[in-house]
Write a structure and sequence with these properties.
Blueprint: H1 2-18, E1 47-49, E2 60-61, E3 65-67, E4 79-85, E5 88-93, H2 94-100, E6 102-107, E7 110-117, E8 122-127, E9 129-130, E10 133-134, E11 137-144, E12 147-152, E13 158-160, E14 165-168, E15 178-179, E16 182-185, H3 186-192, E17 197-199, E18 239-245, E19 248-252, E20 262-267, E21 270-276, E22 281-285, E23 296-297, E24 305-308, E25 314-316, E26 321-323, E27 330-331, E28 334-338, E29 347-350
Parallel strand pairs: 2-6, 5-17, 19-29
Antiparallel strand pairs: 1-11, 3-17, 4-5, 4-16, 6-7, 7-8, 8-15, 9-10, 11-12, 13-14, 18-19, 18-28, 20-21, 21-22, 22-27, 23-24, 24-25, 25-26
Protein backbone atom coordinates (compact mmCIF):
# COMPACT_ATOMS: atom_id res chain seq x y z
CA UNK A 1 0.00 0.00 0.00
CA UNK A 2 2.79 2.45 0.86
CA UNK A 3 4.38 2.01 -2.58
CA UNK A 4 1.07 2.81 -4.30
CA UNK A 5 0.57 5.85 -2.08
CA UNK A 6 3.98 7.21 -2.95
CA UNK A 7 3.39 6.65 -6.66
CA UNK A 8 0.16 8.60 -6.46
CA UNK A 9 1.89 11.40 -4.56
CA UNK A 10 4.67 11.53 -7.13
CA UNK A 11 1.99 12.04 -9.78
CA UNK A 12 0.47 14.83 -7.70
CA UNK A 13 3.82 16.60 -7.44
CA UNK A 14 4.34 16.23 -11.18
CA UNK A 15 0.91 17.70 -11.88
CA UNK A 16 1.59 20.64 -9.59
CA UNK A 17 4.99 21.28 -11.12
CA UNK A 18 4.38 20.53 -14.78
CA UNK A 19 0.79 21.42 -15.61
CA UNK A 20 0.66 23.77 -18.56
CA UNK A 21 -3.08 24.40 -18.25
CA UNK A 22 -2.60 27.76 -16.57
CA UNK A 23 -3.78 31.20 -17.54
CA UNK A 24 -2.44 32.84 -14.36
CA UNK A 25 1.19 33.87 -14.49
CA UNK A 26 3.31 33.49 -11.36
CA UNK A 27 4.59 36.83 -10.11
CA UNK A 28 8.12 37.51 -11.31
CA UNK A 29 10.40 40.14 -9.78
CA UNK A 30 11.16 42.99 -12.21
CA UNK A 31 14.80 42.53 -11.23
CA UNK A 32 15.59 38.95 -10.34
CA UNK A 33 16.86 38.59 -6.78
CA UNK A 34 19.08 35.65 -5.93
CA UNK A 35 19.54 34.20 -2.47
CA UNK A 36 23.13 32.96 -2.21
CA UNK A 37 23.16 32.79 1.60
CA UNK A 38 24.35 29.41 2.87
CA UNK A 39 23.59 30.00 6.56
CA UNK A 40 20.43 28.44 7.95
CA UNK A 41 19.03 28.83 11.46
CA UNK A 42 17.65 25.29 11.32
CA UNK A 43 19.66 22.11 10.65
CA UNK A 44 20.33 22.17 6.91
CA UNK A 45 20.51 18.37 6.83
CA UNK A 46 16.84 18.29 7.83
CA UNK A 47 15.73 20.64 5.04
CA UNK A 48 14.44 18.28 2.37
CA UNK A 49 13.52 18.68 -1.28
CA UNK A 50 9.80 18.01 -1.54
CA UNK A 51 9.93 17.39 -5.28
CA UNK A 52 8.18 20.10 -7.31
CA UNK A 53 10.84 22.83 -6.98
CA UNK A 54 10.35 26.55 -6.45
CA UNK A 55 6.89 27.66 -7.61
CA UNK A 56 6.21 24.10 -8.80
CA UNK A 57 3.18 24.34 -6.51
CA UNK A 58 1.84 27.73 -7.64
CA UNK A 59 0.67 30.22 -5.02
CA UNK A 60 -2.43 32.22 -5.89
CA UNK A 61 -2.18 36.00 -6.30
CA UNK A 62 -5.27 38.06 -5.45
CA UNK A 63 -7.76 35.39 -6.52
CA UNK A 64 -11.34 36.22 -7.39
CA UNK A 65 -14.13 35.47 -4.91
CA UNK A 66 -17.74 34.36 -5.18
CA UNK A 67 -20.67 34.53 -2.80
CA UNK A 68 -21.38 31.66 -0.41
CA UNK A 69 -24.30 30.40 -2.52
CA UNK A 70 -21.92 29.80 -5.45
CA UNK A 71 -19.73 27.27 -3.60
CA UNK A 72 -21.22 24.33 -5.48
CA UNK A 73 -18.68 21.60 -4.74
CA UNK A 74 -17.84 22.64 -1.17
CA UNK A 75 -19.28 20.20 1.38
CA UNK A 76 -20.57 21.34 4.76
CA UNK A 77 -17.84 19.27 6.40
CA UNK A 78 -15.00 20.76 4.32
CA UNK A 79 -12.61 22.93 6.30
CA UNK A 80 -12.14 26.62 5.60
CA UNK A 81 -9.87 29.30 6.99
CA UNK A 82 -11.86 32.43 7.77
CA UNK A 83 -10.77 36.06 7.85
CA UNK A 84 -12.69 39.21 8.72
CA UNK A 85 -11.68 42.80 8.02
CA UNK A 86 -14.54 45.09 8.97
CA UNK A 87 -17.46 44.11 6.75
CA UNK A 88 -15.23 42.17 4.37
CA UNK A 89 -15.52 38.49 5.32
CA UNK A 90 -13.62 35.85 3.36
CA UNK A 91 -13.10 32.10 3.49
CA UNK A 92 -10.12 30.27 2.03
CA UNK A 93 -11.14 26.67 1.57
CA UNK A 94 -8.81 23.73 2.16
CA UNK A 95 -9.85 22.15 -1.13
CA UNK A 96 -8.06 25.04 -2.88
CA UNK A 97 -5.20 25.38 -0.40
CA UNK A 98 -4.41 21.66 -0.72
CA UNK A 99 -3.32 22.43 -4.29
CA UNK A 100 -1.77 25.90 -3.89
CA UNK A 101 -0.63 26.13 -0.24
CA UNK A 102 -0.27 29.93 -0.30
CA UNK A 103 -2.77 32.63 -1.24
CA UNK A 104 -1.51 36.22 -1.43
CA UNK A 105 -4.49 38.52 -1.01
CA UNK A 106 -5.22 42.20 -0.48
CA UNK A 107 -8.19 42.94 1.77
CA UNK A 108 -8.74 46.65 2.22
CA UNK A 109 -5.47 48.00 3.58
CA UNK A 110 -4.32 44.53 4.68
CA UNK A 111 -1.69 42.65 2.68
CA UNK A 112 -2.40 39.07 3.71
CA UNK A 113 -0.72 35.76 2.97
CA UNK A 114 -2.67 32.63 3.82
CA UNK A 115 0.11 30.09 4.36
CA UNK A 116 -1.13 26.51 4.55
CA UNK A 117 0.77 23.23 4.71
CA UNK A 118 -1.36 20.20 3.78
CA UNK A 119 1.24 17.80 5.20
CA UNK A 120 1.02 19.26 8.72
CA UNK A 121 -2.54 20.60 8.42
CA UNK A 122 -1.41 24.03 9.62
CA UNK A 123 -2.75 27.31 8.28
CA UNK A 124 -1.67 30.77 9.40
CA UNK A 125 -1.90 34.40 8.28
CA UNK A 126 1.18 36.53 7.61
CA UNK A 127 1.38 40.25 6.94
CA UNK A 128 3.10 40.73 3.57
CA UNK A 129 4.45 44.16 4.52
CA UNK A 130 8.05 43.49 5.54
CA UNK A 131 10.35 46.36 6.52
CA UNK A 132 7.85 48.79 5.02
CA UNK A 133 7.59 47.10 1.63
CA UNK A 134 4.92 44.77 0.27
CA UNK A 135 6.06 41.37 -0.91
CA UNK A 136 4.37 38.08 -1.68
CA UNK A 137 5.16 34.51 -0.71
CA UNK A 138 5.67 31.45 -2.85
CA UNK A 139 6.22 27.72 -2.32
CA UNK A 140 9.93 26.89 -2.32
CA UNK A 141 9.45 23.15 -2.73
CA UNK A 142 11.50 22.60 0.44
CA UNK A 143 10.27 21.04 3.66
CA UNK A 144 11.50 21.09 7.23
CA UNK A 145 10.06 18.48 9.61
CA UNK A 146 7.41 17.76 6.92
CA UNK A 147 6.35 21.42 7.10
CA UNK A 148 6.17 23.99 4.30
CA UNK A 149 9.13 26.31 3.70
CA UNK A 150 7.78 29.41 1.91
CA UNK A 151 9.99 32.07 0.35
CA UNK A 152 9.37 35.79 -0.06
CA UNK A 153 9.77 37.17 -3.54
CA UNK A 154 11.46 40.41 -2.48
CA UNK A 155 14.60 38.79 -1.02
CA UNK A 156 14.18 35.07 -1.84
CA UNK A 157 14.65 34.38 1.87
CA UNK A 158 13.31 31.01 3.00
CA UNK A 159 10.88 30.91 5.90
CA UNK A 160 9.57 28.25 8.26
CA UNK A 161 5.78 28.25 8.46
CA UNK A 162 5.56 26.70 11.91
CA UNK A 163 8.40 28.79 13.34
CA UNK A 164 6.92 31.95 11.77
CA UNK A 165 10.32 33.29 10.80
CA UNK A 166 12.90 33.49 8.05
CA UNK A 167 15.42 30.67 8.42
CA UNK A 168 17.73 31.44 5.49
CA UNK A 169 18.60 34.49 3.41
CA UNK A 170 19.05 38.18 4.10
CA UNK A 171 16.01 38.20 6.42
CA UNK A 172 17.21 35.29 8.57
CA UNK A 173 15.76 35.60 12.08
CA UNK A 174 12.98 37.97 10.95
CA UNK A 175 9.65 37.10 12.54
CA UNK A 176 6.45 37.10 10.52
CA UNK A 177 3.77 39.51 11.73
CA UNK A 178 0.72 37.34 12.31
CA UNK A 179 -2.81 38.09 11.13
CA UNK A 180 -5.64 36.39 13.01
CA UNK A 181 -7.48 33.63 11.16
CA UNK A 182 -10.15 31.17 12.25
CA UNK A 183 -10.49 27.58 11.05
CA UNK A 184 -13.72 25.62 11.09
CA UNK A 185 -15.98 23.65 8.75
CA UNK A 186 -17.90 25.35 5.96
CA UNK A 187 -21.30 24.76 7.55
CA UNK A 188 -20.28 26.54 10.75
CA UNK A 189 -18.51 29.42 8.98
CA UNK A 190 -21.35 30.27 6.58
CA UNK A 191 -23.83 30.14 9.50
CA UNK A 192 -21.62 32.55 11.43
CA UNK A 193 -21.04 34.84 8.45
CA UNK A 194 -23.65 34.29 5.71
CA UNK A 195 -22.27 37.34 3.89
CA UNK A 196 -18.91 35.60 3.45
CA UNK A 197 -17.17 35.38 0.11
CA UNK A 198 -15.14 32.33 -0.85
CA UNK A 199 -12.27 31.78 -3.28
CA UNK A 200 -13.52 31.13 -6.79
CA UNK A 201 -12.49 27.83 -8.34
CA UNK A 202 -11.70 29.74 -11.52
CA UNK A 203 -8.11 30.20 -10.38
CA UNK A 204 -6.48 30.09 -13.79
CA UNK A 205 -5.04 26.66 -13.01
CA UNK A 206 -6.37 23.26 -14.01
CA UNK A 207 -6.77 21.35 -10.75
CA UNK A 208 -9.30 18.80 -9.50
CA UNK A 209 -10.52 20.93 -6.60
CA UNK A 210 -12.61 18.82 -4.27
CA UNK A 211 -10.43 15.76 -4.82
CA UNK A 212 -7.91 15.43 -1.98
CA UNK A 213 -4.48 15.07 -3.63
CA UNK A 214 -2.71 13.07 -0.92
CA UNK A 215 -4.81 9.88 -0.90
CA UNK A 216 -5.48 8.91 2.77
CA UNK A 217 -2.67 10.98 4.28
CA UNK A 218 -4.83 13.15 6.54
CA UNK A 219 -6.58 10.17 8.17
CA UNK A 220 -3.85 7.53 8.17
CA UNK A 221 -1.78 8.02 11.32
CA UNK A 222 0.95 5.73 10.01
CA UNK A 223 1.35 7.30 6.58
CA UNK A 224 4.20 9.82 6.32
CA UNK A 225 5.95 10.89 3.14
CA UNK A 226 8.98 12.50 4.78
CA UNK A 227 10.82 11.69 8.02
CA UNK A 228 9.73 13.72 11.02
CA UNK A 229 9.75 13.19 14.80
CA UNK A 230 6.67 11.47 16.21
CA UNK A 231 5.00 11.84 19.62
CA UNK A 232 2.70 9.00 20.65
CA UNK A 233 0.74 10.91 23.29
CA UNK A 234 -1.98 11.44 20.67
CA UNK A 235 -2.78 9.99 17.23
CA UNK A 236 -0.39 11.69 14.81
CA UNK A 237 -3.05 13.24 12.55
CA UNK A 238 -5.50 14.35 15.26
CA UNK A 239 -6.38 18.01 14.70
CA UNK A 240 -5.54 20.12 17.74
CA UNK A 241 -5.31 23.80 18.58
CA UNK A 242 -1.85 24.83 19.76
CA UNK A 243 -0.93 28.06 21.56
CA UNK A 244 2.65 29.07 20.75
CA UNK A 245 4.91 31.07 23.06
CA UNK A 246 8.64 31.22 22.44
CA UNK A 247 9.98 27.69 22.21
CA UNK A 248 6.94 26.20 23.92
CA UNK A 249 3.46 25.16 22.84
CA UNK A 250 0.33 23.89 24.54
CA UNK A 251 -2.20 21.78 22.68
CA UNK A 252 -5.95 21.45 23.18
CA UNK A 253 -8.24 18.75 21.80
CA UNK A 254 -11.83 18.90 20.63
CA UNK A 255 -12.61 16.36 23.35
CA UNK A 256 -11.60 18.98 25.95
CA UNK A 257 -14.80 20.84 25.06
CA UNK A 258 -17.24 17.93 25.39
CA UNK A 259 -18.37 18.94 28.89
CA UNK A 260 -17.61 22.66 28.77
CA UNK A 261 -17.34 25.29 26.07
CA UNK A 262 -15.05 27.61 27.99
CA UNK A 263 -11.66 26.86 29.50
CA UNK A 264 -9.54 29.25 31.53
CA UNK A 265 -5.96 28.10 31.58
CA UNK A 266 -2.44 29.33 32.27
CA UNK A 267 0.43 28.62 29.92
CA UNK A 268 3.99 29.88 30.28
CA UNK A 269 2.83 32.22 33.05
CA UNK A 270 0.09 33.84 30.95
CA UNK A 271 -3.69 33.47 31.42
CA UNK A 272 -5.80 32.37 28.47
CA UNK A 273 -9.45 31.89 27.64
CA UNK A 274 -10.33 29.11 25.22
CA UNK A 275 -13.71 28.65 23.60
CA UNK A 276 -14.77 25.65 21.57
CA UNK A 277 -17.25 22.98 20.58
CA UNK A 278 -17.21 20.00 18.23
CA UNK A 279 -16.57 22.26 15.22
CA UNK A 280 -14.04 24.89 16.28
CA UNK A 281 -11.58 26.06 18.91
CA UNK A 282 -10.23 29.57 19.52
CA UNK A 283 -7.85 31.00 22.12
CA UNK A 284 -7.47 34.47 23.64
CA UNK A 285 -4.76 35.89 25.84
CA UNK A 286 -6.30 37.62 28.85
CA UNK A 287 -5.15 40.90 30.30
CA UNK A 288 -4.74 41.34 34.05
CA UNK A 289 -8.17 42.98 34.25
CA UNK A 290 -9.81 40.22 32.22
CA UNK A 291 -8.30 37.32 34.15
CA UNK A 292 -10.93 37.47 36.91
CA UNK A 293 -13.90 38.06 34.58
CA UNK A 294 -16.56 35.36 34.50
CA UNK A 295 -17.13 34.81 30.80
CA UNK A 296 -20.21 33.06 29.46
CA UNK A 297 -20.45 30.97 26.29
CA UNK A 298 -23.19 32.49 24.13
CA UNK A 299 -22.58 31.00 20.70
CA UNK A 300 -25.91 30.07 19.08
CA UNK A 301 -24.61 28.91 15.70
CA UNK A 302 -26.01 31.87 13.78
CA UNK A 303 -23.33 34.52 14.28
CA UNK A 304 -19.65 34.86 15.05
CA UNK A 305 -20.37 35.91 18.64
CA UNK A 306 -19.04 33.33 21.09
CA UNK A 307 -18.56 34.77 24.59
CA UNK A 308 -19.97 37.45 26.87
CA UNK A 309 -18.22 39.26 29.71
CA UNK A 310 -19.77 40.16 33.07
CA UNK A 311 -20.55 43.70 31.86
CA UNK A 312 -22.56 42.40 28.92
CA UNK A 313 -19.85 42.92 26.31
CA UNK A 314 -19.97 40.23 23.64
CA UNK A 315 -16.99 39.09 21.60
CA UNK A 316 -16.72 37.32 18.27
CA UNK A 317 -14.33 34.54 17.31
CA UNK A 318 -11.69 37.12 16.35
CA UNK A 319 -11.87 38.79 19.77
CA UNK A 320 -13.71 41.89 18.53
CA UNK A 321 -16.29 43.39 20.90
CA UNK A 322 -19.61 43.57 19.06
CA UNK A 323 -21.84 44.86 21.88
CA UNK A 324 -21.23 46.60 25.20
CA UNK A 325 -18.45 48.89 26.34
CA UNK A 326 -15.61 46.46 27.00
CA UNK A 327 -12.37 46.29 25.05
CA UNK A 328 -11.32 43.53 22.72
CA UNK A 329 -10.04 40.08 23.58
CA UNK A 330 -6.50 39.61 22.33
CA UNK A 331 -6.24 36.58 20.03
CA UNK A 332 -3.56 34.18 21.22
CA UNK A 333 -0.71 33.18 18.94
CA UNK A 334 -2.30 29.88 17.99
CA UNK A 335 -3.23 27.69 15.06
CA UNK A 336 -4.87 24.41 14.18
CA UNK A 337 -2.84 21.49 12.89
CA UNK A 338 -2.05 17.82 13.08
CA UNK A 339 -0.77 16.85 16.51
CA UNK A 340 2.59 15.46 15.32
CA UNK A 341 3.63 18.81 13.87
CA UNK A 342 3.80 20.75 17.12
CA UNK A 343 6.18 18.53 19.17
CA UNK A 344 8.41 18.46 16.07
CA UNK A 345 8.98 22.21 16.51
CA UNK A 346 8.13 23.09 20.11
CA UNK A 347 8.39 21.76 23.64
CA UNK A 348 4.71 20.84 23.73
CA UNK A 349 2.44 20.12 26.67
CA UNK A 350 -1.11 18.81 26.54
CA UNK A 351 -3.99 20.40 28.38
CA UNK A 352 -5.34 18.14 31.10
CA UNK A 353 -8.88 18.60 32.40
Amino acid sequence: MMKNQLLILSAVYCLSACSSSSTQETTVDPEEVVNNETEWSIPIEDVLDGGPGRDGIPALENPSFVNADQSAILLDSDLVIGYKNGDDVRAYQHIVLDWHEIINDNVGSESLAIVYCPLTGTGIGWNRIIDGNETSFGVSGLLYQTNLVPFDRATKSNWSQLLNEAVNGSLIGKKAELITLFETDWKTWKAMYPETKIVSLNTGFSRTYGVYPYVDYRTNNNFFIFPTPKDDRLPSKERVLAILDGEKAKAYRFSDFETTNLIKDTFNGQPYLLVGNENFMAAFRLSASQESVDFEYVFDGTSGVVVEGADGTRFDVFGNSVTGIGGALEPATSLMGYWFSFPAFYETELYAN
